[in-house]
Amino acid sequence: MTLAIHQLLSAGTPSPEAVEEFLRAHRFPVVERSSVTFVFRGEADAVHLQHWIYGLPSAVPFQRVDGCDLWYLVQEIPARSRVEYKLEVRRGELSRLIRDPLNPLLAHDPFGANSVCHGADYREPEWIAPDPEARPGRLEQLAVPAPALGGERAVTVYLPARFRASRRYPLLVVHDGEDYLRFTGLKTILDNLIHRHEVAPMVVALTQSQDRLRDYAADAGHSGWVAGELVPWLEARYPLLPEPAARGLAGASFGAVAAFAAARRHPGRFGRLLLQSGSFAFTDIGPSRRGPAFEPVVAFVNEWREDPVAIAERVFVSCGVYESLIYENRSLVPLLERAGMQVRYVEAFDGHNWENWRDRLREGLSWLFPGPFWFIYE
């Protein structure tokens, strides 16, 4: 039992006034070193914590305080952790999955929002907030021909502040780019890191798929469009550097597979990869434990693992230790290194979510495209 809840219960069943004072006196969940106390107040027959930490029971029961409507749960969570969660509240036959009413901190994704617990010593990066001194880049909305995919594709292009046609820039193609803009604040991050000279001024093409489980599952047609149609089209429109070292691909989850596949199928085209929580499923012992959507990914990754050739010069890989994909990402790193690539691998006490990927962007982008990079080519 943690100090906060122990003090409340030390005199027996707390009065309504004591409960109200307890709720006013704390921020929830209550973090005390490695212990976190989740609290719910309300009538219920059962309350469970629904979290996204792979390897632990997904539904952990709260304990009700005798004689009142207060529920609590104490969990051990390592320092620097970041955990997204919801509460499952059951009354009779009705069960609801809700955000924590006592916790205003939320994280958003394409499916909605989750409550967020920050463990001890976790700090939100200061470089994700708008910097009034950073001149903003601009976004252009374009329709890019995509004959290989049966039509056009909408692409958003980020151009850095002080963009000049007389200079030449690195190019980064980002899969799920609109989601990166919305859920990681990528434009603000680029503005800030370029302003600080931590990242080179660059052109960033933000792509989005309407059928990502097909396009991003190592699909040859999609890889061909990225390397053979999108990049040449951008090179004709913008002053881009031609060297592979100045051309990169990025993505998270299935988007990381799409980035890897495009580089693998078009060797010598891309020199930089940013792969976040990649869904690099493969057959290890027995059949794959993933679902049917992973079957083309498994076939692709199995093939590369049998002959792990270099597909880029530098590869940044990140993953959360609370993800089910941590084994696949850890096992990828030595193969990349054995193939002769420079690899930087980063783990975090986080899960498969956009804010985990956001928090790794500074380290990844500044290593792949360091600030002085573009001066070499002026």
Count structural domains: 2
> What name does CATH use for the topology of the largest domain?
Rossmann fold
Radius of gyration: 23 Å
Mean of residue pLDDT?
94
- One letter per element, helices H and strands E, the order comes to HHEEEEEEEEEEEEEHHEHHEHEHEHEHH
* Name of the CATH class of the largest domain: Alpha Beta
Residue ranges: pLDDT <50 for 5 or more in a row? none
Number of strands: 18
CATH superfamily of the largest domain, called what? Answer: Alpha/Beta hydrolase fold, catalytic domain
Structural class given helices, strands, pairing? Answer: alpha/beta
| Shape assignment | elongated
Biggest sheet features: 8 strands, mixed
Q: Give the strand order, joined by hyphens, for the main sheet.
A: 11-12-14-13-15-16-17-18
Range of strand content: 25-35%
Describe the structure.
The protein has 378 residues and is an alpha/beta fold. It has 2 domains: 116 residues, Immunoglobulins (Immunoglobulin-like); 252 residues, Rossmann fold (3-Layer(aba) Sandwich), CATH 3.40.50. 29% of the residues lie in helices and 28% in strands. The protein contains 11 helices and 18 strands. The strands form 3 sheets. Strands 11-12-14-13-15-16-17-18 form an 8-stranded mixed β-sheet, with helices on both faces. β15, α7 and β16 form a beta-alpha-beta unit. The model has no long low-confidence stretch (mean pLDDT 94).
